[in-house]
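input
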Amino acid sequence: MSEQKQPNTAAWGAVFAVAVGVAALITVEFLPISLLTPMAEGLSISEGVAGQSISATALIAIFSSLFVTPLTRGIDRRIVVLGFSVLLTLSSIIVALAPNFAWLVIGRMLLGLALGGFWALAASLAMRLVPGKDIPKALSIIFGGVSVSMVVAAPLGSYLGAVIGWRGVFLAASAFGVICFLWQAIALPSMPDRSRSNVSAIFSLAARSDVRVPMLAIFTVFRGNFALFTYLRPFLEQVSHFDVAALSLILLGFGIANFIGTTFSSLPLKYSLHGTLAIVPMVMGVNAVLMAVFGTHQVAIAMLILLHGAGSGLVPVAWSTWVTRALGDEAEAAGGLQVAVIQLANMAGAMAGGFAFDSISQFAPMVLGGMLLTLTFLLVGFGMTRRDRKGAVNA
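output
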């Protein structure tokens, strides 16, 4: 475990600088989802192939989340965070200027380095910037950047893509990266590295019998969600026949619903953490299948997307809560493992969804996502033993 020397006073300016960095990374990560169709047309590839650029981001983020701490051992964390902002900026520029799919993937891989590394260090950054009593508040601010980006990324990307083109959107994202770098350079204090973490601790945790099934459940729920969500825009365009204005409005509704799901997640979690872990994926799974059934009915599909957005906001909070309760004594290793599993799931979901979209039909990613989400319900409800559920009790 890391030995963190906590400050006597809170550096809230630095906390907000980190939160803006989170928002920027997540916004750029999800931009291709709202721009998939024009990106595919601009590079003369299919939507399914364009979606693999998201898989490339997730693949690199897996390794970054596992290895960033040992590889940057001894380097001031301020310098590391600034490096992530540089990678974000370079990634956006390369994607904006990409002449072909290969350069698109290179740009997205740079984003994966920043994304996985940032998530692996996020909790420790909060511990370094505020006193112990203020850590929950600092974390809520930092991770609040995720909800904000989920609200604005998809609709803003869709709208700006229609105005300035998808390349213009990524150039604007590079400017966002520069702003993050400057803010962090001014606000972040020196944070010398004192960590003792290593990769072996993460793999030792993954080998535990009470961890394997929950991590498999995390994998299936995020894979199912990403298989569906990545190809939502082409589905809404080709099946539901929404124009750009209506599409932007629906994606905004999805983001707002996601924010609401995150904000009010404490209510079902207080009642039953284990029940929430099982029931929410089941509802999302049924909802995904209903999207395929009612895909041509615009009002129905809009309502289903709002429900899916709320569930998507609740799931990450629920599993992060399980990690802190069940594996709190090994929180650093558990956090790194969870990030790696989620990124692996995102990559696998985007790949499987793209294959299904191109090879089967526009409806296939919805059905695939529904099946994986329902499998999560079965894993949590019937596969997790009492020991696996440690901490996942009524609370």
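quick obs: The radius of gyration is 20 Å.
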